[in-house]
UniProtKB/TrEMBL annotation:
InterPro entries: CMP_dCMP_dom, Cytidine_deaminase-like, DHFR-like_dom_sf, Eubact_RibD, NADAR, RibD_C, RibDG_C, Riboflavin_Biosynth_HTPR
Top enzyme category: oxidoreductase
A GO CC term attached to the entry: chloroplast
Family: In the C-terminal section; belongs to the YbiA family.
Protein name: Riboflavin biosynthesis protein PYRR, chloroplastic
Keywords: Chloroplast, Glycosidase, Hydrolase, Multifunctional enzyme, NADP, Oxidoreductase, Plastid, Transit peptide
Pathway: Cofactor biosynthesis; riboflavin biosynthesis; 5-amino-6-(D-ribitylamino)uracil from GTP: step 3/4
Listed EC numbers: 1.1.1.193
Keyword match Repeat: no
The keyword Chloroplast belongs to this UniProt entry's keyword annotation: yes
Amino acid sequence: MALSLGAYSPPLICKATAANNHSHRHVHDVAYIRRAVEIADKSAGFTSPHPNFGCVIATRSGDVAGEGYQYAQGTKPAEIQAVEAAGEHCRGATAYLNMEPGDCHGDHTAVSALVQAGIKRVVVGIRHPLQHLRGNSIRALRSQGLHVEVLGEDMQSKIVEEARKSCLLVNLPLIHRATSRVPFSVLKYAMTLDGKIAASSGHAAWISSKMSRNRVFELRGRSDAIIVGGNTVRRDNPRLTARHGGGHMPIRIVMTQTLDLPEEANIWDMSEVSTIVVTQRGARRSFQKLLASKGVEVVEFDILNPREVMEYFHDRGYLSILWECGGTLAASAISSGVIHKVFAFVAPKIIGGKYAPSPVGELGMVEMSQALDLIDVCYEQVGPDMLISGFLQPIPDLTPIIPSEDETFAIDPTVTPYESSIIFFYKTWDPYGAFSNFSPHPIQMPDDNGKYATWPSVEHYYQANKFVGVNDPVARNCIEKIKSAKSPEEAARMGRSIQRGQPTLVRSDWDSVKIDVMYRALKCKFSIYPHLNYLLLSTAGSVLVEASPHDLFWGGGREGEGLNYLGRLLMQLRSEFLGESSTSSENTCLAL
Protein backbone atom coordinates (compact mmCIF):
# COMPACT_ATOMS: atom_id res chain seq x y z
CA MET A 1 0.00 0.00 0.00
CA ALA A 2 3.04 2.29 0.31
CA LEU A 3 4.58 4.22 -2.57
CA SER A 4 8.06 5.75 -2.56
CA LEU A 5 9.77 8.87 -3.86
CA GLY A 6 8.82 9.89 -7.35
CA ALA A 7 5.49 8.09 -7.47
CA TYR A 8 3.57 11.31 -8.00
CA SER A 9 4.30 14.92 -8.92
CA PRO A 10 1.89 17.82 -8.44
CA PRO A 11 0.92 20.08 -11.35
CA LEU A 12 3.73 22.47 -12.32
CA ILE A 13 3.22 25.94 -10.86
CA CYS A 14 5.21 28.90 -12.22
CA LYS A 15 7.40 31.00 -9.93
CA ALA A 16 5.77 34.12 -8.56
CA THR A 17 6.54 37.00 -6.25
CA ALA A 18 6.67 36.55 -2.49
CA ALA A 19 3.25 38.15 -2.23
CA ASN A 20 1.74 35.22 -4.09
CA ASN A 21 3.60 32.47 -2.23
CA HIS A 22 0.78 31.93 0.26
CA SER A 23 -1.77 31.50 -2.52
CA HIS A 24 0.54 29.18 -4.44
CA ARG A 25 1.10 27.09 -1.32
CA HIS A 26 -2.65 26.55 -1.13
CA VAL A 27 -2.66 25.41 -4.76
CA HIS A 28 0.05 22.89 -3.87
CA ASP A 29 -1.88 21.85 -0.75
CA VAL A 30 -5.00 21.23 -2.82
CA ALA A 31 -3.06 19.13 -5.33
CA TYR A 32 -1.54 16.95 -2.60
CA ILE A 33 -4.86 16.59 -0.75
CA ARG A 34 -6.50 15.47 -4.00
CA ARG A 35 -3.75 12.88 -4.36
CA ALA A 36 -4.37 11.69 -0.79
CA VAL A 37 -8.05 11.29 -1.69
CA GLU A 38 -7.14 9.39 -4.85
CA ILE A 39 -5.04 6.80 -3.04
CA ALA A 40 -7.49 6.61 -0.11
CA ASP A 41 -10.16 5.54 -2.57
CA LYS A 42 -8.12 2.41 -3.41
CA SER A 43 -9.35 0.79 -0.19
CA ALA A 44 -13.05 1.53 -0.73
CA GLY A 45 -15.03 -1.61 0.02
CA PHE A 46 -12.12 -3.83 0.99
CA THR A 47 -12.91 -5.59 4.28
CA SER A 48 -15.41 -2.82 4.86
CA PRO A 49 -16.63 -1.11 6.96
CA HIS A 50 -13.70 1.16 7.67
CA PRO A 51 -12.69 4.75 6.91
CA ASN A 52 -10.64 5.41 3.77
CA PHE A 53 -7.34 7.02 4.72
CA GLY A 54 -4.58 8.27 2.42
CA CYS A 55 -1.32 10.03 3.26
CA VAL A 56 1.13 11.91 1.01
CA ILE A 57 4.46 13.22 2.28
CA ALA A 58 6.01 16.08 0.31
CA THR A 59 9.47 17.54 0.88
CA ARG A 60 10.16 21.27 1.20
CA SER A 61 11.26 21.26 -2.44
CA GLY A 62 7.85 19.96 -3.51
CA ASP A 63 8.77 16.35 -4.32
CA VAL A 64 6.55 13.51 -3.11
CA ALA A 65 8.68 11.35 -0.84
CA GLY A 66 6.16 8.70 0.16
CA GLU A 67 2.54 7.65 0.00
CA GLY A 68 0.34 5.11 1.73
CA TYR A 69 -3.27 4.14 2.26
CA GLN A 70 -4.96 2.05 4.93
CA TYR A 71 -6.23 -1.24 3.55
CA ALA A 72 -8.68 -1.99 6.36
CA GLN A 73 -9.51 -1.33 9.97
CA GLY A 74 -6.82 -3.00 12.03
CA THR A 75 -4.10 -2.86 9.34
CA LYS A 76 -1.05 -0.58 9.17
CA PRO A 77 -2.11 3.09 9.13
CA ALA A 78 -1.56 5.12 5.95
CA GLU A 79 0.70 7.53 7.84
CA ILE A 80 3.11 4.76 8.91
CA GLN A 81 3.28 3.40 5.37
CA ALA A 82 4.03 6.85 3.94
CA VAL A 83 6.69 7.52 6.59
CA GLU A 84 8.35 4.17 5.92
CA ALA A 85 8.37 4.88 2.17
CA ALA A 86 9.77 8.40 2.60
CA GLY A 87 12.50 7.52 5.11
CA GLU A 88 14.89 10.38 5.83
CA HIS A 89 12.98 12.64 3.42
CA CYS A 90 10.40 13.12 6.20
CA ARG A 91 12.65 15.59 8.04
CA GLY A 92 11.03 19.00 7.73
CA ALA A 93 8.45 17.69 5.24
CA THR A 94 4.68 18.19 5.06
CA ALA A 95 2.17 15.35 5.46
CA TYR A 96 -1.14 15.59 3.61
CA LEU A 97 -4.09 13.58 4.93
CA ASN A 98 -7.52 13.38 3.33
CA MET A 99 -9.00 13.02 6.83
CA GLU A 100 -7.85 13.48 10.40
CA PRO A 101 -6.39 10.19 11.75
CA GLY A 102 -8.80 8.10 13.76
CA ASP A 103 -6.55 7.08 16.62
CA CYS A 104 -9.27 5.83 18.92
CA HIS A 105 -7.45 3.33 21.14
CA GLY A 106 -5.12 5.61 23.11
CA ASP A 107 -1.93 4.51 21.34
CA HIS A 108 -1.87 7.30 18.71
CA THR A 109 0.23 5.23 16.29
CA ALA A 110 -0.47 7.47 13.28
CA VAL A 111 0.30 10.64 15.23
CA SER A 112 3.48 9.14 16.71
CA ALA A 113 4.69 8.05 13.28
CA LEU A 114 4.47 11.61 11.93
CA VAL A 115 6.07 13.16 15.03
CA GLN A 116 8.95 10.69 15.27
CA ALA A 117 9.67 10.94 11.54
CA GLY A 118 10.35 14.67 11.84
CA ILE A 119 7.31 15.96 9.95
CA LYS A 120 6.96 19.70 10.57
CA ARG A 121 3.62 20.52 8.95
CA VAL A 122 0.39 18.58 8.48
CA VAL A 123 -2.48 19.52 6.19
CA VAL A 124 -5.78 17.73 6.87
CA GLY A 125 -8.62 17.61 4.33
CA ILE A 126 -11.43 17.29 6.88
CA ARG A 127 -11.69 16.65 10.60
CA HIS A 128 -12.81 13.18 11.64
CA PRO A 129 -16.58 12.81 11.07
CA LEU A 130 -17.22 10.87 14.29
CA GLN A 131 -17.84 13.26 17.18
CA HIS A 132 -15.83 11.40 19.83
CA LEU A 133 -12.75 11.31 17.55
CA ARG A 134 -13.06 14.76 16.01
CA GLY A 135 -10.10 16.99 16.83
CA ASN A 136 -8.24 14.39 18.96
CA SER A 137 -5.36 13.79 16.54
CA ILE A 138 -5.17 17.45 15.54
CA ARG A 139 -4.77 18.40 19.21
CA ALA A 140 -2.15 15.68 19.71
CA LEU A 141 -0.12 16.83 16.68
CA ARG A 142 -0.23 20.47 17.75
CA SER A 143 0.79 19.57 21.29
CA GLN A 144 3.94 18.02 19.78
CA GLY A 145 4.83 21.25 18.03
CA LEU A 146 3.64 20.42 14.52
CA HIS A 147 1.92 23.09 12.47
CA VAL A 148 -1.51 21.69 11.54
CA GLU A 149 -3.89 23.22 9.01
CA VAL A 150 -7.37 21.99 8.14
CA LEU A 151 -8.29 22.64 4.54
CA GLY A 152 -10.82 25.43 4.18
CA GLU A 153 -10.69 26.62 7.80
CA ASP A 154 -8.09 29.34 7.26
CA MET A 155 -8.68 30.20 3.59
CA GLN A 156 -11.70 29.87 1.34
CA SER A 157 -11.59 29.54 -2.43
CA LYS A 158 -13.32 27.53 -5.12
CA ILE A 159 -10.46 25.04 -5.54
CA VAL A 160 -10.16 24.60 -1.78
CA GLU A 161 -13.89 23.94 -1.47
CA GLU A 162 -13.78 21.41 -4.33
CA ALA A 163 -10.85 19.59 -2.69
CA ARG A 164 -12.66 19.55 0.63
CA LYS A 165 -15.73 18.14 -1.10
CA SER A 166 -13.63 15.32 -2.58
CA CYS A 167 -12.51 14.50 0.98
CA LEU A 168 -16.15 14.25 2.02
CA LEU A 169 -17.07 12.09 -0.97
CA VAL A 170 -14.34 9.49 -0.44
CA ASN A 171 -15.71 8.86 3.07
CA LEU A 172 -19.35 9.66 2.42
CA PRO A 173 -20.63 6.40 3.99
CA LEU A 174 -18.78 7.21 7.23
CA ILE A 175 -20.06 10.78 7.19
CA HIS A 176 -23.64 9.53 6.82
CA ARG A 177 -23.04 7.26 9.79
CA ALA A 178 -21.94 10.30 11.78
CA THR A 179 -24.97 12.39 10.82
CA SER A 180 -27.85 9.90 10.54
CA ARG A 181 -29.03 6.49 11.70
CA VAL A 182 -29.06 4.79 8.31
CA PRO A 183 -26.23 3.58 6.05
CA PHE A 184 -25.36 5.43 2.86
CA SER A 185 -27.64 3.82 0.24
CA VAL A 186 -27.31 3.80 -3.54
CA LEU A 187 -30.16 2.77 -5.86
CA LYS A 188 -28.85 1.21 -9.05
CA TYR A 189 -30.87 0.09 -12.05
CA ALA A 190 -30.56 -0.46 -15.79
CA MET A 191 -33.39 0.58 -18.11
CA THR A 192 -34.17 0.94 -21.79
CA LEU A 193 -34.49 4.30 -23.50
CA ASP A 194 -38.25 4.14 -22.95
CA GLY A 195 -37.83 3.57 -19.21
CA LYS A 196 -38.36 -0.19 -18.85
CA ILE A 197 -36.37 -2.54 -16.60
CA ALA A 198 -37.84 -5.67 -18.20
CA ALA A 199 -40.18 -6.77 -20.95
CA SER A 200 -43.89 -7.30 -20.23
CA SER A 201 -43.06 -11.00 -19.72
CA GLY A 202 -40.58 -10.09 -17.00
CA HIS A 203 -37.52 -11.04 -19.06
CA ALA A 204 -34.65 -8.65 -18.30
CA ALA A 205 -31.37 -10.24 -19.49
CA TRP A 206 -29.63 -8.21 -20.68
CA ILE A 207 -30.69 -4.57 -20.83
CA SER A 208 -27.29 -2.97 -20.44
CA SER A 209 -23.96 -3.83 -22.05
CA LYS A 210 -21.22 -6.03 -20.62
CA MET A 211 -19.17 -2.91 -19.85
CA SER A 212 -22.04 -1.51 -17.78
CA ARG A 213 -22.42 -4.80 -15.96
CA ASN A 214 -18.72 -4.70 -15.09
CA ARG A 215 -19.28 -1.26 -13.58
CA VAL A 216 -22.06 -2.77 -11.47
CA PHE A 217 -19.62 -5.40 -10.19
CA GLU A 218 -17.33 -2.53 -9.18
CA LEU A 219 -20.20 -0.82 -7.34
CA ARG A 220 -20.92 -4.06 -5.50
CA GLY A 221 -17.26 -4.39 -4.54
CA ARG A 222 -17.43 -0.97 -2.87
CA SER A 223 -20.54 -1.80 -0.84
CA ASP A 224 -21.05 -3.55 2.48
CA ALA A 225 -24.25 -5.21 1.30
CA ILE A 226 -26.61 -5.58 -1.68
CA ILE A 227 -30.35 -5.55 -1.08
CA VAL A 228 -33.08 -6.99 -3.33
CA GLY A 229 -36.75 -7.81 -2.92
CA GLY A 230 -38.50 -11.15 -3.15
CA ASN A 231 -39.67 -10.46 -6.72
CA THR A 232 -36.07 -10.15 -7.91
CA VAL A 233 -35.14 -13.48 -6.33
CA ARG A 234 -38.18 -15.23 -7.84
CA ARG A 235 -37.87 -13.67 -11.30
CA ASP A 236 -34.12 -13.34 -11.90
CA ASN A 237 -32.51 -15.90 -9.55
CA PRO A 238 -29.47 -13.60 -9.13
CA ARG A 239 -26.12 -14.46 -7.56
CA LEU A 240 -25.36 -10.87 -6.49
CA THR A 241 -21.60 -11.33 -6.37
CA ALA A 242 -18.81 -8.87 -7.17
CA ARG A 243 -17.00 -11.45 -9.26
CA HIS A 244 -15.44 -8.91 -11.63
CA GLY A 245 -15.27 -5.94 -9.31
CA GLY A 246 -11.90 -6.56 -7.67
CA GLY A 247 -13.35 -5.66 -4.27
CA HIS A 248 -14.64 -7.66 -1.38
CA MET A 249 -17.80 -9.76 -1.54
CA PRO A 250 -20.72 -7.79 -0.04
CA ILE A 251 -23.35 -9.46 2.11
CA ARG A 252 -26.60 -10.22 0.24
CA ILE A 253 -29.88 -9.07 1.80
CA VAL A 254 -33.33 -10.19 0.69
CA MET A 255 -36.26 -8.07 1.91
CA THR A 256 -39.57 -9.93 1.73
CA GLN A 257 -42.74 -9.49 3.74
CA THR A 258 -44.32 -12.89 3.02
CA LEU A 259 -41.15 -14.98 2.70
CA ASP A 260 -42.67 -16.47 -0.48
CA LEU A 261 -39.31 -17.48 -1.93
CA PRO A 262 -38.07 -20.54 -3.86
CA GLU A 263 -36.46 -23.35 -1.92
CA GLU A 264 -33.65 -23.54 -4.46
CA ALA A 265 -31.96 -20.30 -5.54
CA ASN A 266 -28.46 -19.06 -6.32
CA ILE A 267 -28.65 -16.65 -3.42
CA TRP A 268 -28.88 -19.56 -0.94
CA ASP A 269 -25.39 -20.69 -2.04
CA MET A 270 -23.27 -19.63 0.93
CA SER A 271 -19.92 -20.91 -0.35
CA GLU A 272 -18.67 -17.46 -1.38
CA VAL A 273 -20.69 -14.98 0.65
CA SER A 274 -23.45 -14.91 3.26
CA THR A 275 -27.13 -14.07 2.78
CA ILE A 276 -29.50 -12.41 5.24
CA VAL A 277 -33.28 -12.50 4.81
CA VAL A 278 -35.36 -9.80 6.52
CA THR A 279 -39.06 -10.48 6.85
CA GLN A 280 -42.26 -9.89 8.83
CA ARG A 281 -42.38 -11.50 12.25
CA GLY A 282 -43.96 -14.96 12.11
CA ALA A 283 -43.74 -15.39 8.33
CA ARG A 284 -43.48 -19.04 7.17
CA ARG A 285 -41.77 -20.57 10.19
CA SER A 286 -41.10 -23.85 8.38
CA PHE A 287 -39.37 -22.04 5.53
CA GLN A 288 -37.29 -20.10 8.04
CA LYS A 289 -36.04 -23.45 9.39
CA LEU A 290 -35.16 -24.53 5.85
CA LEU A 291 -33.16 -21.37 5.29
CA ALA A 292 -31.41 -21.81 8.63
CA SER A 293 -30.37 -25.32 7.57
CA LYS A 294 -28.67 -23.74 4.53
CA GLY A 295 -26.82 -21.26 6.74
CA VAL A 296 -29.03 -18.28 5.82
CA GLU A 297 -29.67 -15.80 8.63
CA VAL A 298 -33.30 -14.69 9.03
CA VAL A 299 -34.13 -11.45 10.85
CA GLU A 300 -37.76 -10.69 11.74
CA PHE A 301 -39.35 -7.25 12.11
CA ASP A 302 -42.68 -6.31 13.66
CA ILE A 303 -43.16 -3.79 10.85
CA LEU A 304 -41.12 -4.40 7.71
CA ASN A 305 -40.22 -1.10 6.09
CA PRO A 306 -36.99 0.18 4.52
CA ARG A 307 -36.20 2.71 7.25
CA GLU A 308 -36.44 0.20 10.12
CA VAL A 309 -34.39 -2.30 8.13
CA MET A 310 -31.71 0.31 7.39
CA GLU A 311 -31.60 1.45 11.02
CA TYR A 312 -31.05 -2.18 12.00
CA PHE A 313 -28.14 -2.60 9.58
CA HIS A 314 -26.75 0.74 10.73
CA ASP A 315 -26.63 -0.76 14.23
CA ARG A 316 -24.80 -3.76 12.80
CA GLY A 317 -22.09 -1.42 11.56
CA TYR A 318 -22.91 -1.38 7.85
CA LEU A 319 -21.84 1.84 6.15
CA SER A 320 -22.97 1.42 2.54
CA ILE A 321 -25.85 -0.46 0.89
CA LEU A 322 -26.41 -1.01 -2.84
CA TRP A 323 -30.09 -1.42 -3.73
CA GLU A 324 -30.65 -3.58 -6.84
CA CYS A 325 -34.35 -4.11 -6.34
CA GLY A 326 -37.46 -3.77 -8.50
CA GLY A 327 -39.71 -0.75 -8.82
CA THR A 328 -42.01 -1.49 -5.87
CA LEU A 329 -39.27 -1.78 -3.26
CA ALA A 330 -37.32 1.08 -4.86
CA ALA A 331 -40.34 3.38 -4.50
CA SER A 332 -40.79 2.32 -0.88
CA ALA A 333 -37.11 2.98 -0.13
CA ILE A 334 -37.21 6.42 -1.77
CA SER A 335 -40.42 7.32 0.09
CA SER A 336 -38.79 6.24 3.37
CA GLY A 337 -35.92 8.65 2.73
CA VAL A 338 -33.18 6.02 2.87
CA ILE A 339 -31.88 6.35 -0.71
CA HIS A 340 -29.07 8.91 -1.01
CA LYS A 341 -27.72 8.41 -4.53
CA VAL A 342 -28.92 6.97 -7.85
CA PHE A 343 -26.96 5.20 -10.60
CA ALA A 344 -29.10 4.75 -13.71
CA PHE A 345 -27.70 2.86 -16.71
CA VAL A 346 -29.72 3.85 -19.81
CA ALA A 347 -29.37 1.48 -22.76
CA PRO A 348 -30.10 2.70 -26.33
CA LYS A 349 -32.94 0.20 -26.70
CA ILE A 350 -36.71 0.41 -26.91
CA ILE A 351 -38.81 -2.51 -25.67
CA GLY A 352 -42.26 -0.95 -25.25
CA GLY A 353 -45.06 -2.73 -23.43
CA LYS A 354 -47.99 -1.24 -21.56
CA TYR A 355 -47.36 -3.44 -18.54
CA ALA A 356 -43.56 -3.57 -18.74
CA PRO A 357 -42.13 -2.56 -15.31
CA SER A 358 -40.32 0.72 -14.69
CA PRO A 359 -37.40 1.24 -12.26
CA VAL A 360 -39.43 3.14 -9.64
CA GLY A 361 -43.02 2.33 -8.72
CA GLU A 362 -45.74 4.58 -7.33
CA LEU A 363 -44.51 7.55 -5.27
CA GLY A 364 -47.88 9.28 -4.96
CA MET A 365 -46.87 12.25 -7.08
CA VAL A 366 -49.49 13.72 -9.45
CA GLU A 367 -47.69 16.79 -10.83
CA MET A 368 -44.29 17.16 -12.48
CA SER A 369 -43.48 19.93 -10.00
CA GLN A 370 -43.39 17.22 -7.30
CA ALA A 371 -40.63 15.29 -9.09
CA LEU A 372 -37.44 14.69 -7.12
CA ASP A 373 -34.44 16.52 -8.59
CA LEU A 374 -31.01 14.93 -8.48
CA ILE A 375 -28.10 16.98 -7.11
CA ASP A 376 -24.58 17.07 -8.62
CA VAL A 377 -25.68 15.12 -11.68
CA CYS A 378 -22.94 13.36 -13.71
CA TYR A 379 -23.16 11.87 -17.21
CA GLU A 380 -20.79 9.19 -18.44
CA GLN A 381 -20.83 7.01 -21.52
CA VAL A 382 -20.15 3.36 -20.70
CA GLY A 383 -19.86 1.48 -23.97
CA PRO A 384 -23.15 2.01 -25.80
CA ASP A 385 -24.95 2.98 -22.57
CA MET A 386 -25.27 6.26 -20.73
CA LEU A 387 -24.68 6.28 -16.96
CA ILE A 388 -26.55 9.06 -15.16
CA SER A 389 -25.78 9.49 -11.47
CA GLY A 390 -26.67 12.04 -8.82
CA PHE A 391 -27.67 12.55 -5.21
CA LEU A 392 -31.24 12.50 -3.94
CA GLN A 393 -30.12 14.11 -0.70
CA PRO A 394 -27.46 16.78 -0.05
CA ILE A 395 -24.05 15.75 1.21
CA PRO A 396 -24.08 16.25 5.01
CA ASP A 397 -22.14 19.33 6.10
CA LEU A 398 -19.81 18.84 9.04
CA THR A 399 -18.70 22.47 9.26
CA PRO A 400 -20.99 23.63 12.10
CA ILE A 401 -19.38 21.22 14.56
CA ILE A 402 -15.74 22.19 14.02
CA PRO A 403 -14.23 22.68 17.51
CA SER A 404 -12.82 26.05 18.54
CA GLU A 405 -9.10 26.61 18.92
CA ASP A 406 -9.39 26.14 22.71
CA GLU A 407 -11.23 22.84 22.19
CA THR A 408 -14.22 22.07 24.37
CA PHE A 409 -12.46 19.85 26.90
CA ALA A 410 -10.04 22.67 27.83
CA ILE A 411 -12.97 24.87 28.90
CA ASP A 412 -14.51 22.24 31.16
CA PRO A 413 -12.45 19.03 31.55
CA THR A 414 -15.21 17.46 33.65
CA VAL A 415 -17.55 17.25 30.65
CA THR A 416 -17.81 13.76 29.18
CA PRO A 417 -20.72 12.38 27.13
CA TYR A 418 -19.93 8.76 27.91
CA GLU A 419 -20.85 8.46 31.62
CA SER A 420 -23.45 5.75 31.95
CA SER A 421 -24.29 2.76 34.14
CA ILE A 422 -24.31 0.61 30.98
CA ILE A 423 -21.42 0.94 28.52
CA PHE A 424 -22.07 -0.38 25.03
CA PHE A 425 -19.27 -1.19 22.61
CA TYR A 426 -19.24 -2.79 19.17
CA LYS A 427 -17.23 -1.26 16.30
CA THR A 428 -13.60 -0.30 16.79
CA TRP A 429 -14.23 3.38 16.07
CA ASP A 430 -16.80 3.67 18.87
CA PRO A 431 -15.79 5.41 22.15
CA TYR A 432 -15.06 2.04 23.77
CA GLY A 433 -14.15 0.34 20.49
CA ALA A 434 -10.88 -0.96 21.94
CA PHE A 435 -12.98 -3.59 23.74
CA SER A 436 -13.79 -5.15 20.37
CA ASN A 437 -11.94 -8.29 19.22
CA PHE A 438 -11.31 -6.41 15.98
CA SER A 439 -9.24 -3.63 17.56
CA PRO A 440 -5.72 -3.43 16.06
CA HIS A 441 -3.78 -4.74 19.04
CA PRO A 442 -1.44 -7.69 18.35
CA ILE A 443 -1.10 -10.34 21.05
CA GLN A 444 1.49 -13.04 21.71
CA MET A 445 0.11 -16.41 22.71
CA PRO A 446 1.82 -19.77 23.36
CA ASP A 447 1.15 -22.81 21.17
CA ASP A 448 0.94 -26.43 22.35
CA ASN A 449 4.76 -26.57 22.53
CA GLY A 450 5.03 -23.44 24.64
CA LYS A 451 6.43 -21.32 21.81
CA TYR A 452 4.99 -17.83 21.53
CA ALA A 453 3.53 -16.55 18.27
CA THR A 454 2.23 -13.09 17.40
CA TRP A 455 -1.37 -12.73 16.27
CA PRO A 456 -2.52 -9.47 14.61
CA SER A 457 -5.67 -9.30 16.76
CA VAL A 458 -7.78 -11.25 19.23
CA GLU A 459 -10.15 -12.12 16.37
CA HIS A 460 -7.32 -13.69 14.34
CA TYR A 461 -6.39 -15.88 17.32
CA TYR A 462 -9.98 -16.82 18.14
CA GLN A 463 -10.93 -17.81 14.58
CA ALA A 464 -7.75 -19.85 14.02
CA ASN A 465 -8.28 -21.80 17.24
CA LYS A 466 -11.37 -23.42 15.71
CA PHE A 467 -8.98 -25.67 13.79
CA VAL A 468 -6.18 -26.19 16.32
CA GLY A 469 -5.31 -29.83 17.10
CA VAL A 470 -7.19 -31.28 14.12
CA ASN A 471 -5.07 -33.98 12.49
CA ASP A 472 -5.57 -32.76 8.95
CA PRO A 473 -3.11 -30.75 6.81
CA VAL A 474 -6.05 -28.74 5.46
CA ALA A 475 -6.92 -27.61 9.01
CA ARG A 476 -3.31 -26.60 9.65
CA ASN A 477 -3.32 -24.66 6.39
CA CYS A 478 -6.52 -22.89 7.52
CA ILE A 479 -4.77 -21.75 10.70
CA GLU A 480 -1.90 -20.18 8.74
CA LYS A 481 -4.26 -18.50 6.28
CA ILE A 482 -6.30 -16.96 9.10
CA LYS A 483 -3.15 -15.86 10.91
CA SER A 484 -1.93 -14.02 7.79
CA ALA A 485 -5.33 -12.44 7.01
CA LYS A 486 -4.86 -8.75 6.25
CA SER A 487 -7.43 -7.59 8.78
CA PRO A 488 -9.62 -8.87 11.63
CA GLU A 489 -12.64 -8.66 9.30
CA GLU A 490 -10.95 -10.98 6.81
CA ALA A 491 -9.95 -13.39 9.59
CA ALA A 492 -13.53 -13.48 10.86
CA ARG A 493 -15.04 -14.10 7.43
CA MET A 494 -12.46 -16.76 6.68
CA GLY A 495 -12.97 -18.64 9.95
CA ARG A 496 -16.76 -18.52 9.76
CA SER A 497 -16.81 -19.55 6.10
CA ILE A 498 -14.58 -22.58 6.71
CA GLN A 499 -16.57 -23.57 9.79
CA ARG A 500 -19.81 -23.35 7.79
CA GLY A 501 -18.57 -25.02 4.61
CA GLN A 502 -16.19 -27.63 6.08
CA PRO A 503 -17.47 -28.48 9.58
CA THR A 504 -15.28 -31.62 9.75
CA LEU A 505 -12.22 -29.37 10.03
CA VAL A 506 -13.47 -27.80 13.27
CA ARG A 507 -12.09 -29.27 16.48
CA SER A 508 -14.62 -31.52 18.20
CA ASP A 509 -14.40 -29.70 21.55
CA TRP A 510 -14.83 -26.18 20.11
CA ASP A 511 -18.16 -25.41 21.74
CA SER A 512 -16.77 -26.29 25.17
CA VAL A 513 -13.43 -24.45 24.86
CA LYS A 514 -14.27 -21.34 22.83
CA ILE A 515 -15.05 -19.22 25.91
CA ASP A 516 -11.70 -20.15 27.47
CA VAL A 517 -9.90 -19.39 24.18
CA MET A 518 -11.48 -15.94 24.09
CA TYR A 519 -10.73 -15.33 27.78
CA ARG A 520 -7.02 -16.13 27.40
CA ALA A 521 -6.71 -13.88 24.35
CA LEU A 522 -8.49 -11.00 26.07
CA LYS A 523 -6.38 -11.38 29.21
CA CYS A 524 -3.24 -11.14 27.13
CA LYS A 525 -4.52 -8.05 25.28
CA PHE A 526 -5.53 -6.14 28.39
CA SER A 527 -2.37 -7.16 30.26
CA ILE A 528 0.24 -5.95 27.79
CA TYR A 529 -1.31 -2.63 26.75
CA PRO A 530 -1.37 -0.26 29.76
CA HIS A 531 -3.75 2.23 28.14
CA LEU A 532 -6.25 -0.57 27.41
CA ASN A 533 -5.94 -1.86 30.96
CA TYR A 534 -6.58 1.68 32.23
CA LEU A 535 -9.60 2.04 29.92
CA LEU A 536 -11.07 -1.23 31.18
CA LEU A 537 -10.51 -0.34 34.84
CA SER A 538 -12.06 3.09 34.28
CA THR A 539 -15.40 1.37 33.61
CA ALA A 540 -15.59 -0.02 37.15
CA GLY A 541 -19.19 0.00 38.34
CA SER A 542 -20.62 -0.13 34.81
CA VAL A 543 -22.12 -3.06 32.94
CA LEU A 544 -20.26 -3.80 29.69
CA VAL A 545 -22.41 -4.92 26.77
CA GLU A 546 -21.25 -5.81 23.27
CA ALA A 547 -23.95 -4.09 21.23
CA SER A 548 -24.06 -6.63 18.41
CA PRO A 549 -27.69 -6.87 17.28
CA HIS A 550 -27.22 -10.27 15.65
CA ASP A 551 -24.65 -12.23 17.69
CA LEU A 552 -26.73 -13.69 20.50
CA PHE A 553 -23.79 -15.53 22.07
CA TRP A 554 -21.00 -12.97 22.33
CA GLY A 555 -23.30 -9.93 22.00
CA GLY A 556 -26.34 -8.47 23.69
CA GLY A 557 -28.74 -8.80 20.74
CA ARG A 558 -31.24 -6.28 19.41
CA GLU A 559 -33.40 -6.14 22.53
CA GLY A 560 -31.11 -7.46 25.24
CA GLU A 561 -31.91 -11.08 24.43
CA GLY A 562 -28.26 -12.02 23.79
CA LEU A 563 -25.99 -13.82 26.25
CA ASN A 564 -23.31 -11.06 26.04
CA TYR A 565 -20.42 -13.42 26.78
CA LEU A 566 -17.83 -10.93 25.49
CA GLY A 567 -19.10 -8.30 27.91
CA ARG A 568 -19.14 -10.89 30.71
CA LEU A 569 -15.52 -11.90 30.08
CA LEU A 570 -14.39 -8.27 30.07
CA MET A 571 -16.18 -7.64 33.37
CA GLN A 572 -14.58 -10.79 34.78
CA LEU A 573 -11.15 -9.55 33.71
CA ARG A 574 -11.86 -6.12 35.15
CA SER A 575 -12.70 -7.69 38.49
CA GLU A 576 -9.51 -9.77 38.43
CA PHE A 577 -7.33 -6.79 37.53
CA LEU A 578 -8.89 -4.67 40.27
CA GLY A 579 -8.20 -7.43 42.79
CA GLU A 580 -4.56 -7.92 41.81
CA SER A 581 -1.67 -5.91 43.19
CA SER A 582 0.70 -4.34 40.68
CA THR A 583 3.56 -6.56 41.94
CA SER A 584 1.77 -9.91 41.65
CA SER A 585 0.17 -9.66 38.22
CA GLU A 586 0.10 -13.01 36.54
CA ASN A 587 2.48 -13.21 33.57
CA THR A 588 0.07 -14.66 31.00
CA CYS A 589 1.91 -13.68 27.85
CA LEU A 590 5.11 -12.11 26.58
CA ALA A 591 5.37 -8.33 26.51
CA LEU A 592 5.45 -6.97 22.99
